[in-house]
């Protein structure tokens, strides 16, 4: 689950004439903050010095997760996946290789793509040499190229050094036809100038960088002589701190541990004309049956042993195992299988907690195929392996998943209210709260962190969420990290907990009344007790249940819409059965009900109370939008249907928004500067495929008069009216593919367009997702 926030701020310019439409210069749609892990995560990288975890997605995004809950989202110019990603440790630079073989250089402090280096060949292996920041790139032709990272300019410098396939592969180079480089890495010794190159077919070369020659070649010839089937290398890693052992995984599921001959004795005993010295294959004796080894990682435990983490998966099977390897012997000591429930795409070891005073902790971070991140305490894994060698029965390590601290239940519906106060944010206050928030990658209890009620006067924005399990939560949304203020657990009359999904919310700040409806048809009227404070959120202070009164009523069918106006004595509720109920606020009794017919199966999508004035005549209306986009107009007091012929679209289409639009107060009646049609009240109807403006006066008479219409390019899933600082208004539209449009009213012209890459809107009723927008254009997407 993740939250995105799009901010569109209108300027404070005064406009004259028309309906006060927003202009292009008034809006600036942009992604302000992204919280959590993107759903399509596919690759991990970690900087152990800066304690930053990078999570790359399949659409060109990279999410950064740092200490003290710092988070950032990087977006590549093209929505394409990364296949390699590595930090220049401690330098604030992240390097990523995308599937178009472009090397991206990111500055993580400025969140900026500083350099894009195109590579002519397909990059098949990529390694950043820390401290010196040389970069080795192996390609599909078997060559290895060398770059230098210029930290000052944040760019790559091509170096006149290349290791050709014909020289590194040895005498079996097959007439110059290249073989993919599967692994390239310097030997992990400070005094070593050797580079280990492993080709896809299993040939291994130790290359002397200074002398530009082969020290030895081995691997494939040994495999052929033993008449083994051909295998392709899929992963590899060093398996000791001295660079004398290397582990190699194959697509057959085999894992070999090779002993690299002492490089200095090898150099003295060989000549450049005879570099084919055999490597010694140690007796690891391990194989995952027909499960390709996707990744290997070796972690030292002490001076004599280490742990080899093995990740293997295919379309039909997956396995994640850990072995203990002794650096001074050839034997495999013990193994364990981690009980993951799906294939693992990547792994990293993250050290440290957000609070530096706490005990340091190393967490094994597993990126699963679904995009979820699974966490294991590495000390528990080590303890299990050690206990496995004793008589005491070991206990499998516990694990947890990365979640947002918004509770275990999904958000199904939400409302967002922003304050009109002009006070600036208290940055110190929110920074302190952020530091107390549970670290996203912590194995500790991720219980709710609540905003202090003594500081509630600092809250500027309120976010109310209705959940799949029937709870309602109030959040301080003044800063990107949402802080829970208050939570209501719905109760039946017999005081048992109601777990019916919340389907509708309406909150009136001036009267402090919350109306909620759920899937079971229960409507609750929650009235908060006011105090003398000027802060509207002071109503949320107090013990659970002591600061509000609740009344409820049961209706037929799931609640789909609610509406009320400030300080009114009644409110309206619509259900999936097409029934409109007008209910008294004080005792939750029904004033009247009206059954409305729908062209197709469906219920009430929208309700709005409206005072209609025409030729000196005032009438209170209840305007009803059906899910099939039919518009019915009722007399508010009696429920009498005023338009016997509902205004309808030519064909049934799902309605998203129905709202009345009033004239700008700047426009004088009888002005000749504007079309007469624009000077009357309008009905704005937004559907999945179009926006329409109807004349309200004609709709009351049962006539359909369209004053403007705009077909949409794509499937729209959310629409909201947004307001500027004075009378200017517009609409914001969110599409199911992540496109975001802002349009002016009443001409419906496109002002600005943006894109929420990675956003996926699901129409599945069992999935939890919500979109909500404040009146001034801040959007929260969950």
From TrEMBL:
Entry GO CC: cytoplasm; plasma membrane
Gene Ontology BP terms: exocytosis; Golgi to plasma membrane transport
InterPro entries in the cross-refs: Lgl_C_dom, WD40/YVTN_repeat-like_dom_sf, WD40_repeat_dom_sf, WD40_rpt
Limits of the Lethal giant larvae (Lgl)-like C-terminal domain: 680-780
Alphabetic keyword roster: Exocytosis
Pfam family, one: Lgl_C
A molecular function GO annotation: GTPase activator activity
Similarity section: Belongs to the WD repeat L(2)GL family.
Name of the protein: Lethal giant larvae (Lgl)-like C-terminal domain-containing protein
Species annotation: Aegilops tauschii subsp. strangulata
Lineage: Eukaryota, Viridiplantae, Streptophyta, Embryophyta, Tracheophyta
């Amino acid at each position: 689950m993740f939250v995105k926030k799009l901010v569109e701020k209108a300027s404070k310019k005064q406009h004259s004439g028309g309906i006060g439409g927003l202009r292009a210069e008034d809006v600036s749609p942009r992604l302000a903050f992204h919280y959590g892990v993107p759903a399509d995560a596919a690759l991990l990288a970690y900087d152990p010095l800066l304690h930053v975890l990078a999570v790359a997605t399949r659409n060109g995004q990279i999410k950064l997760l740092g200490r003290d809950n710092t988070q950032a989202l990087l977006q590549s110019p093209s929505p394409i996946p990364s296949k390699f990603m590595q930090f220049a440790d401690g330098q604030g630079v992240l390097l990523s290789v995308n599937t178009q073989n472009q090397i991206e250089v990111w500055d993580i402090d400025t969140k900026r793509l500083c350099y894009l280096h195109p590579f002519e060949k397909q990059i098949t292996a990529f390694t950043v040499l820390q401290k010196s920041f040389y970069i080795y790139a192996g390609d599909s032709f078997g060559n290895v190229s060398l770059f230098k990272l210029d930290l000052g300019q944040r760019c790559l410098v091509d170096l006149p050094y290349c290791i050709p396939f014909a020289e590194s592969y040895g005498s079996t180079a097959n007439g110059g036809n290249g073989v993919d480089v599967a692994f390239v890495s310097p030997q992990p010794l400070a005094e070593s100038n050797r580079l280990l190159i492993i080709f896809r077919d299993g040939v291994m070369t130790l290359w002397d960088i200074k002398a530009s020659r082969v020290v030895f070649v081995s691997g494939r010839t040994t495999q052929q002589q033993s008449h083994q089937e051909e295998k392709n290398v899929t992963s590899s890693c060093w398996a000791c701190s001295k660079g004398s052992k290397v582990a190699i995984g194959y697509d057959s599921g085999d894992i070999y541990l090779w002993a690299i001959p002492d490089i200095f004795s090898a150099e003295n005993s060989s000549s450049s004309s005879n570099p084919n010295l055999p490597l010694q294959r140690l007796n690891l004796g391990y194989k995952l049956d027909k499960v390709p080894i996707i990744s290997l990682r070796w972690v030292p435990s002490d001076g004599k042993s280490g742990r080899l983490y093995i990740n293997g998966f295919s379309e039909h099977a997956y396995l994640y195992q850990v072995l203990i390897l002794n650096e001074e012997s050839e034997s495999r000591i013990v193994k364990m299988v981690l009980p993951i429930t799906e294939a693992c795409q990547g792994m990293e070891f993250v050290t440290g907690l957000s609070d530096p005073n706490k005990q340091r902790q190393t967490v094994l971070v597993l990126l699963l195929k679904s995009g979820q991140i699974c966490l294991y305490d590495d000390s528990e894994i080590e303890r299990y392996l050690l206990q496995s060698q004793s008589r005491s029965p070991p206990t499998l390590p516990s694990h947890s998943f990365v979640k947002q601290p918004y509770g275990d239940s999904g958000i199904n519906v939400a409302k967002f209210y922003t304050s009109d106060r002009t006070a600036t944010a208290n940055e110190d206050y929110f920074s302190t709260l952020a530091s107390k928030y549970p670290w996203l990658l912590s194995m500790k209890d991720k219980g709710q962190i609540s905003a202090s009620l003594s500081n509630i006067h600092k809250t500027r924005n309120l976010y109310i969420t209705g959940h799949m399990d029937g709870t309602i939560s109030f959040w301080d949304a003044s800063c990107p990290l949402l802080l829970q203020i208050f939570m209501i657990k719905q109760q039946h009359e017999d005081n048992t907990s109601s777990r019916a999904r919340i389907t509708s919310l309406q909150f009136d700040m001036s009267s402090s009344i919350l109306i909620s409806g759920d899937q079971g048809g229960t409507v609750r009227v929650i009235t908060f007790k006011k105090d003398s404070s000027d802060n509207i959120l002071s109503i949320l202070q107090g013990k659970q249940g002591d600061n509000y009164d609740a009344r409820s009523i049961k209706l037929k069918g799931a609640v789909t819409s609610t509406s009320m106006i400030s300080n009114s004595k009644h409110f309206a509720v619509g259900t999936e059965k097409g029934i409109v109920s007008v209910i008294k606020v004080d005792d939750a009794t029904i004033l009247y009900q009206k059954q409305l017919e729908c062209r197709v199966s469906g219920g009430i999508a929208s309700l709005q109370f409206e005072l209609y004035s025409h030729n000196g005549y005032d009438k209170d209306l209840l305007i009803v939008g059906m899910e099939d986009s039919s518009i019915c107009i009722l007399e508010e007091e009696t429920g009498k249907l005023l338009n016997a012929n509902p205004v309808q679209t030519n064909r049934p289409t799902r309605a998203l928004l129905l709202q009345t639009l009033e004239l700008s107060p700047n426009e004088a009646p009888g002005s000749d500067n504007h079309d007469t049609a624009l000077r009357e009240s309008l009905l704005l109807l937004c559907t999945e495929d179009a926006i329409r403006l109807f004349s309200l006066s004609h709709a009351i008479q049962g006539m359909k008069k369209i004053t403007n219409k705009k077909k949409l390019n794509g499937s729209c899933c959310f629409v909201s009216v947004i307001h500027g600082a004075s009378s200017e208004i517009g609409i914001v539209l969110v599409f199911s593919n992540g496109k975001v449009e802002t349009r002016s009213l009443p001409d419906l012209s496109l002002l600005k367009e943006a894109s929420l890459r990675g956003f996926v809107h699901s129409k599945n009723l069992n999935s939890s997702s919500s979109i909500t927008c404040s009146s001034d254009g801040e959007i929260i997407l969950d």
